Amino acid sequence: MSKSLSLISALLCTFIWGTTFIAQDTGMDKIGPLTFNGARFFIGFLSIIPIALIFENSKIIKQINNNRTEFFKLLFWIGLFLFLGTFVQQAALLYTDIANAAFFTVFYVPMVPIILYIFYKKKIHWSIWPSAILCVGGVYLLSDFSNATVRFGDSLVILCAFFWALHIIFIGKFIKIFDIPLFFGALQALVVASFSFLFGFFFENISFANILNESVSIIYAGVLSGGIAFTLQIYAQKNIAPSPSAIIFSLESVFAAIAAWIILNQYLDIDNIIGCTFILAGVIFSQILPEVKKTNNR
Fold first, then answer.
1. Domain count, the chain
2. Residue 250 lies inside a defined structural domain of this protein
3. Distance from the CA of 153 to the CA of which of 56, 66, 179, 190 falls in 20 to 30 A?
4. pLDDT tens-digit map of 205-243
5. 223: containing domain
């Protein structure tokens, strides 16, 4: 049952990420990416912290005191990776289009098992590699990348994918030690907001009036993506390893395409539909094939 709830959390998290991509792109008409991220994740913090205090208040102090040093070390690194990933992604959208961003972002799918194998000597189930290839190929077809031009922003998106991969890996480390996903989700949002406003103070002109002008996009992306989705990601990874988690999260592109189809009337052609099918096949293979091996070994 716990695995099923984690899968549901992963899918819901990915659905939210996909449907808030439009808000992320349109929310920078009057403010910079650092200001947008700061406001977005501060709203995310405010949306999650009351829920965390209601449901996890009795175990927060005990959980942290069990390994205080490790808790704050992971909070710093996870918050930093999330800040860098979201900021670079926001900045990249100023220099490239959504099709390119969607394609290059999914590179975190093969990056996760590669990093785990090289730096942590972690054995990866063979199904991860064909699943990752299916996901990357699917996003290629889904994003219409073949009709796009490679831009400076695309290199930023690849860098963003690297930070996403590290964030997924370190969340996997955190959830094995601590069991306060709501509280940690709120704290990581606060760390990202703090980093964003700190650097935004030096590199952007932060205007409260301009933030209010983008309030709809900020609140939408903040509550749903910056708050709820990234907290669901933590719970999802409680019972799903980092590599298959990354593959599930690649469904973000599918949900983004479907949302654009329904909301913006952006028609899905046969290549787009085949791309969705490839990604779905990759997700299914990554979840079912390891379980088949476990069943056969009983």
1. 1
2. no
3. 190
4. 888 888 988 888 899 889 998 899 999 999 899 888 888
5. 2-127+149-239
